[in-house]
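In keeping with the milestone schedule agreed at the kick-off meeting, the structural modelling team has produced records for the first pair of proteins. Each record is given below as a sequence line and a C-alpha cell line. The laboratory manager (R.T.) confirmed that both were archived under the project's standard naming scheme.
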Amino acid sequence: MFYKNIFLHQELHRGMFEKVKQIMSSNKDLLSNSYLFGTNASYIEELYENYIKNPSSVKGEWRNFFDKIQNSSNNEELTNNKDIIHSSIIDHFIQISKNRKKYIFKNTHESEINDNSEIFNLINAYRLLGHHNANLDPLKIKIKDNLPELDPLNYNLTKDDLNKPFNSKNTYFQKSKLSLKEAIELLKKTYCSSIGLEYMHISNASARNWIQEKMESTLASKEFNKNEKINILNQLTISEGLEKFLHTTYVGQKRFSLEGGESFIVSMDEAVNSAAKLGVEEIVIGMAHRGRLNLLVNIMGKRPRDLFDEFEGKYAQNCTDGDVKYHNGFSSDVTTRSGNTIHLSLAFNPSHLEIVNPVVEGSVRVRQEKREKESFNKVLPILVHGDSAFAGQGVVMETLNLSQTRGYTTGGTLHIIINNQIGFTTSNIKDTRSTEYCTGIAKSFDAPIFHVNGDDPEAVAFVTQLALEYRMIFNHDIVIDIICFRKLGHNEQDTPSLTQPIMYKHIAQHPGTRKLYADKLVAEKILENNDVDNFVKNYRDILNDGSKTIVPIISSTDSQYSVNWSSYLNIAWTNDANTAVPYEKLKQLGHKITTVPESFKLHTLVAKLIKDRRRMIDGEINLDYGMGEHLAFASLLDDGYPVRITGQDSGRGTFTHRHAVLHNQDNSDTYIPLQNLSEYQAKFKVVDSVLSEEAVLGFEYGYSCSAPNILTIWEAQFGDFANGAQVVIDQFISSGEAKWGRQSGLTMMLPHGYEGQGPEHSSARIERFLQLCADNNMQVVQPTTAAQIFHLLRRQMVRLIRKPLVIFTPKSLLRNKDASSILSDFTDKNFQPIIGEIDNSIQNSSVKKIIFCSGKVYYDLLHYRTEKNLKNVAIIRIEQIYPITVKDLNLEINKYFNAVDIVWVQDEPKNQGAWSFINKYIYDAMLNGQKLRYSGRIASSSPAVGYMSKHQEQQKSLIAKAFSNDIEIFLSK
C-alpha cells in the first residue's frame, strides 16, 4: 500500500523506486547497512498504512516524512500528472541508510515505551530474518548465524527496556501490551523454532498478513490431540518400517530409501487429509525417486505384494517394455479421516528428476477445466522435489514461471522438498547452489517458504495444514522445505562416507525421527513403550501379509471427471479415416471464420487475408495452408472436438499465416472467429505461451494424457526450438507408451524448411524423431498442401488411434500457390501418406528414374523438371515418413517397371534428414536391377549454411544432380 499510495496513488514518477534501488545498489555501504532496502520495504509500507488510518500513530521522522508527501497531493505539478523532482525522497532513503542511529527514535518515558517504531524494527527483523536462527538441522551440524538485526541493542534498546511494556497492536500475539522481554520470547517461538519462515518478500499484503497472523497467533505451533499425535507416530512407523523391510529383504537393490526423511510421509498424509477436508476431489502428484515407493504403499495404498513382485521381477505391466519400479505411476481412491473420498494420481516419472513438474501441471489443468465451478480448488497439484534438483534444474524455474499465466495456471501448487542437505553426492553444500537455501528461486515467484526440521513431525504436520489453507485461499504456489538427512547413500549401493565422513558420523549417531517422536509421546504419557513396539510389530505383519497397508478404493468407477481411455486402447494401426467434409458444411464454417464484427477495425494486411479466405471458401481462388488449417479446426470444433493450441506465437503464427486471434486497430480488443462458430461448438483455446520450450511442451504432454478427446497442439516458433525440450520428447512423447502404457495424442508443429535462414532456423531435426520411431509409437509427417494439413489434423481426432503426431510444417509453402488446394480436395479426399506422380502426361512405361522426396524440395524438383521438359522422371512425395505405408511404397515403385534409377532427394545434409531412416524401406520395395542413389547436401556437423549465396548454390546443385546420371550408387538390387 505504501508504494501504491505514494508512488502510484500520488502519481509520482513510476521509475522513482527503481531509481532509489539503483542508487542503493551502486553503494556497497548502503547495501550492507540499509535495513530498509529490499524485502524490508514492507516495514515502511505498514508504517504508511498506519499513518493513513491514524497519523498520530506514527512518530518522529517518519511522521514528518509522510506529512510532506501527503501535503504534496495538492501540488499543481502533481495534479497535472507531470514529472516532479524526487531528490528529497531519495535523500530520505539514503540518509536512513547511512545514518541509522540518527533515525532511531529515543525513549522518552522511563516506565513505558510509547513509540513503537524502534520495537517494530526488531519485530520486523524477526519476521524477515528469524529463519536464520531457527532450529532447522536435525543433525545439528550447521552453525546458526549471529545476526545483529535480531539483537535489541542494534535498535538502541537496552536491558533497562526489557521489562517495559509497549503497544503491540502491530503484532498478532493476542495481547494489546507486551514487555520487550515477552515480545522477544514470542518472536523466537514463532520465527526461530522448528520452523523457519520466509514470507516478507511476498508482494500481496493480504497474503503476507494472513501468514503473519496464522504464525504469530499460534506461535507457529498447534496443540495436536492424542489421536492426532498417535497418527503422526503411525505415519513415521510405517514409513520407517517399509524401508527397513525392503533393506533386509531385498539386499542391495535400488529403492532410493526415505530413511532420514520419514516426516515426508507425515506431510503427505496431512496434505491428503487436509485437502479432502477443504473440498479437494483430486490430487495429482509428481515426484522423482526418493520416497516414491513409500508414498505408493503408505499413502496411495499400493499393495506391498505388488511392489515386492516388482523387486522380484515378476510384475508384468500392460506395456511393451516396462520401467523400473521407482519410475512407475499409480492411481487410487482413498477414504480420508474426514470421511471424504479423494482421487490420487502419481505421475510416471523418468530419471530426469524435475521434468515431471510441467507434465503434472498440464494434467491438473485439463482436469480442472472439466469442472467449470471452483475448479482450482477441486484439483490440486503436489510436486515433490529433492533439494539439489529444485535449485539446479531449469525446468523448475520454467514451471514456476507458468504458475500465474492465464493459459497454464493451476491455481497454485504445493511444493514439498525432501531436503537431505546433500543433493546427489556433493561433498560441500556450496557446490549445490548459489543461494543460502535450495528454495531461493521460489522467492522470485512470491511463493511463501516454510523451512521445517524433519525431526519435529508435529511442525511438519502444522505447516502442511497451513500451506494447504494458503493455497486454497490465495491460489498461489507455496513451498514446504523439510530439512532432514539421508541415512543411506544416493542409492543403496553407495558408500556416502567416502565423500561426507563428518555428516555420516552424525547420521550414524542419530536414533531416527520415529524413535525421537515415540520417546516424546511416552514422556507425555500418551503411549507406553509396549504400545510403540506393537506399532512396529503390527506393521511388519502387514508387510509380511502383503495385501494392503491402507484401505483405498482402487479406481474402477466412471466419475464424470475421470479420464477414460478405454475407447482408444488396443486399436490396430490404420491410415483409413474419413476426414472429408461436405461442401455446404465447409462453406458455412468458412463464412463463420471470415466474419468479423462491423465495429472491429482490422489491420489492412489482416483485412486482405480475411477477404482472400472468403474468396477461397467461395471457390474463387485455391485454399492456402492457413485456410486449410483453420477449416480443420473449425470442422473439428463443429464435430464436438475441443482444440487447444499453444506456442510462443500461436495466435498470429510465427510466419503470420494463422491469425487465429484478430486485434482491433482502434483499441486493445481481440476477436477469435474460431470461438464464434455456433452456440454448441466445442471450446477453442489458443495461447501465446511464455518463452519456454521444455516446460510448455511438458505441460501440453501432460494435458494430452488426460484429454484424449481434445486436439492438443504445441507449436514451436521454429522447429529447431524443440531442441530445448528434448528431454520431454525422449522420455515422454516417444517412449511413454512402451515404458508405462501411457497414450497421448499430442500434436507437435515444428516449422521446417531450407530457405537460407541459417543453421538455427532451417531444420527441425527430422532425423532425431525418426531415430526414436519404433512399434508404431508416433507419427512423423511432412505435409505439402493445404488439403493435407486439413485432413491430417482431422484424422488425429476422427480416428480412435491416439499417438503423438509430429508435423514438420512448412515456411515458404505457407503462401506458395503451388501448395494450395482446390475445394474438392477437402470434400472428396482423405489424407494421403504418399502422393504419387500428379502429371498425367508422364507415362508409366516411359519413366526411367523415380525420385522420392519429402517436403518443400518437391516443388523445387517439379519446377526443374518442368523447365527442362523431362518426361522420363516420376516424382513421388512421402508425406508420412513414419509409420511408412509399405504397401503404397511398393505400389508406386511397381508402376514404373522400366525405371532403373531410384533417387532419394532431400534438402538436409546426408547425415541428417530422413535418408538414413528411409533408404532401407525404399530398398526393400525396389525391383530387381534397380539402383538406389542419394542427392542432397553432403554430411555436415551443422544443420545448414549461414550464407544465402552458399545456400542457393547448394540447392541448385542438389536439384540438378537429382536429374543427372552422375550420382553415386548407394545400393543395387
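The second protein of the pair:
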Amino acid sequence: MTTVTDAGTPTGVRALADDYVRRLADLDTRTATSLGTHPGDDRTPDLSPDGQQAIDDLARSVLAALPAAVVADDDDRRCARLLRERLEAQLAVSDAGEHLRTLRNIFGPHQQVRQLFELMPTATSDDWDVVARRMARVPQAYAGYVATLTEGSRRGLYAAPRQVETVVGQLDAWLAGAEGTWFHTFVAKAPEDTALRAALADAADDAAAAALGLRDHLAHEYLPAAQGTPDGVGAERYRLGARLSTGSDLDLAEAYAWGWDEFRRLDAEMHREAQTVLPGADPITAMRHLDENGDAVDGVEEVRIWLQKMMDTAIDELDGAHFDISGPIRTVEAMIAPSGSAAAPYYTRPSLDFSRPGRTWLPTLGQTRFPLWGLVSTWYHEGVPGHHLQLARWAHLADRLSTYQTTVGSVSGNTEGWALYAERLMDELGYLTLPGTRLGYLDAQQMRAIRVVIDIGMHLGLQVPADSSVHAGETWTPEVARAFFGAHCGRPGPFLDSEIVRYLGWPGQAISYKLGERAWLAGRDAARAARGADFDPKAWHGSALSLGSLGLDDLTDELARL
C-alpha cells in the first residue's frame, strides 16, 4: 500500500482507513455482508489459518502506511488514533494464537457463518439464488474452521471443555428443530419456484451435513484432547481481550474494586426499589413476584409486535425533544432470534445504504410468556436510544467521518457503554413507569456490575471479598460465580448459565458495558461542568453520537470537549 495518490498527493488518514475497509471487505465476506457493500456476494468466510493470515497482513500494511498519512483536522486525528489502536490490538490477539482456539456461545465463528444468512436480502428469486450458492459453500467455511482448531491443537492451544460442550449443544439445537434443521427452516421461506427450491434444499442438506460434521469433530476429537484446559485464561491473555473490547490498557485491580463499589451501591438501591413492588420483600423475591404477577405478553409473535411498538413509540417521543432522529434512522425492526442462540438479546447494524435496517433480536429460550419488567430497559439498550440510535447514526455519517470510524472500527466499550448509558437516560427522563420496570432497570445495571466482578475474578483467580453474602473469601470459580449471580440477579437460571459460559469464552468483553458507561457519564459530567447553565443535553448527545468510534483511552476526554 502507498500513502500517495497517483498524482503524488499524500493520502489523508480517513482515505487510508476507508481503503482498509474496502480491502477487508474484499477479503472477508463477514465484513462485506454486514456493510452491504458487495451485492450478490455468495462467499462464506475463510476461517482457515490462511484466512486469518491474509487479514493480519492487510492490517500490518495499513499500520506501515499510517505514519505518512495526512492528519488535517480533529476527525482525522481521532481516526488515526483509532486505526492504530484497533489494528495493534487485533494483531496482538492474533499473534497470541487466540483465533486458533476461539469457541464461544455468542458471535463465535460457527455462529458468524449462520448469521450471514440472517443479514442477506431475501425479497426476490435472485436473492434466494445467492442464498443457495452461499449455503452450498458452508462446508468450505466449516472445513476452514476445523483446520484452524486443528492447528491450535497442534500448538497445544485449546478452548476449555465448557466452551466445547456448549457449542456442541448449540449445533445440536440447530440440527434438531421440529420442522427440520435451521438451514432447512431458513430456505423454506423461499418463493414457490421448483428449480430454486430444489437448489435450496440441496444446499441446506450440504450445510446441515457440514454443521453435523463440525459438531462431531468437536464432540469426538477436540473435546477429549481439550480435557484439563482451565476455564480462566490468566492475566496475560485477559489483558489482550480486555484491550480489544475496551480500547484501553486497564488497571484491572482498580476496575475490580470499582465493580465491587458499584455492586454495593446498586444493591442498596435495589433493596429500596423492591419495597415499591412488594413491601417487605428483598429484590429477588420482588422480581419473582413480578414474574408471576406482573404485566406480561403471551406469545412469541405477540412479544415481537410489542417490542416493535415500544421502539416506534420511543423514536416518535424522543425525536425533537432529546435527539434528532431522521431519515432511515427512524426504522428499526424487532426480530426473534433463531434457536441455538445464546441467551442474551442482541442488535445487528443496518447496511451502509440502509437497504437492510437495524434489527433487535430476542432469544426466547423456549418461552412463550414474557414478563415485561425485565424487557423494557433491555430494549431501550438494544434499540432506541441505545444501539440502534448510535450505530444507525454512525452509518448515516460514514461519508462525513470514515467508514472505518463508523463500522469495523467499533469498540465494545464505546457502543455497549452508550447502550447502558441509554438505559440510565430513559430512567432519568421518566420512561420507566410500567410497574416493576425500574427494578428491572436496576437489575440490568447490577448484572453489568456483577460482570465486572466475576469476569475479572474468574479469569485472574481472585478472591471473593470478605463482605460478600456468597462464598466470602473463596477463590472465584464458575460455580462460585453462578451462585453469586443467582443470589443477586433476577434473570432466569438458563440465562445466567449462558452468561457464565459467555464470560469464560470471551475474556474481557463483559466488563466493557459498565466501564464504558462510566466513561460516558464522566464525559457528560465534565462537559456539563465546563458549560454550566449553557449545557444543552440534546446538542451534547447529537455531537457525542457524531464522533464515531473511540476507545476508552480517549472517550471521556473527547466527550468533555463537546
